[in-house]
Design brief:
It comes from Billgrantia aerodenitrificans. The protein has 319 residues and is an alpha/beta fold. It contains 14 helices and 11 strands.
Length: 319
């Protein structure tokens, strides 16, 4: 540590550099730090002079990191994350609360987790659960969270992964919508297909039966948030593609039903995992939450499999 002190003009330079690198703009960094933009520029110039390297390239639209700047930013970010985790652990010890942060979709939170939140709280009474919510297709870094739900093939050099289940898709709708619109006899009204705007799902490729069931004109409702897609289906507005790891609760309760004459489900090549960064060891609380989510999901799917044996979920989940 004494060597590190000699390599820096001041410890404050680390905070100024991290903010400027993350914001990509000295003015934004100054606002975040509560200082003036010239003060940020002076501190960073002093840091560059001290290290005898250029850390930023100034452009008309802001700043970008040089290769040396990227190396320093990686090291500082990892160090700050470790410090933050240590502080959180200390606070948890003093308050008795443990914090677990999840990076999940708004749909997962709204339609899978919320209906069983009381069960989660009963299982983990000292847990402080926080969310980084994603409205569209699930993706993004999990560096700043404990766990993230992602569709990945498995572990890699950067992440550890625990399998929840294969990606299984089922067309779903409300019971009233099915009774009115889904039939093996042609009718003129057609159906309304509710979709996610940035989804890779091609209705007629994955579910060719809709070429026939959508007799007349198939109408569309397209939303950027999958939570809204499912809410529309629950309200009887049309048929949605149901990701089994999210819609299993509603299929089990009967609020949603398979939206075809003969219930069908397909498994894709993707796998749904709970992942976390190898840079951030998983806490005992996070590991317990991970195991609880996996166990509850599989229980749900088993109930749906019993309710709708035609979906052949047992075979699909073993793939």
């Amino acid at each position: 540590m004494p060597t590190l002190r000699r390599q820096l003009p001041s410890a404050n330079a680390l905070f100024v550099f991290e903010s400027a690198a993350r914001c990509g703009n000295f003015t934004k960094a100054a606002a975040e730090l509560g200082v003036t933009q010239p003060a940020v520029s002076r501190m960073l110039s002093l840091l560059e002079d001290h290290l005898e390297v250029q850390l930023f390239l100034r452009t008309p639209n802001g700043t970008v990191l040089t290769e040396n700047g990227q190396i320093l930013y990686r090291g500082i970010s990892e160090g700050f994350q470790s410090i933050e985790k240590a502080i959180q652990e200390i606070r948890a010890r003093s308050t008795g609360l443990e914090t677990v942060t999840l990076s999940v979709s708004t749909a997962f939170t709204t339609h899978w987790l919320m209906p069983r939140m009381h069960e989660l709280q009963a299982e983990f009474p000292s847990l402080d659960l926080r969310f980084q919510l994603i409205s569209g297709s699930v993706s993004g870094s999990v560096e700043d969270v404990d766990l993230g739900v992602r569709f990945v093939s498995g572990e890699d050099v950067h992440h550890q992964a625990a399998l929840i289940m294969p990606e299984i898709l089922v067309p779903v709708c409300s019971p009233a919508y099915r009774e009115q619109h889904v039939s093996d006899k042609p009718h003129d009204s057609g159906v309304t297909l509710i979709s996610l705007s940035d989804s890779r799902i091609d209705w007629f490729e994955l579910f060719p039966c809709f070429q026939n069931e959508a007799s007349g004109t198939a109408h569309s409702l397209i939303f950027s948030d999958y939570a809204v897609v499912l809410q529309a289906a629950l309200l009887g507005q049309g048929i949605a593609v149901g990701w089994m790891n999210i819609v299993s609760h509603w299929l089990d309760t009967g609020a949603l039903v398979p939206a075809t004459v003969k219930p069908i489900a397909i498994a894709t090549e993707r796998l749904c995992h709970l992942i976390h960064s190898r840079k951030k060891p998983l806490s005992q609380a996070a590991a317990e939450v991970r195991d609880w989510i996996i166990d509850e999901t599989r229980k749900d799917v088993a109930k749906v499999a019993k309710r709708y044996p035609e979906l052949e979920l047992d075979a699909l989940t073993r793939r």
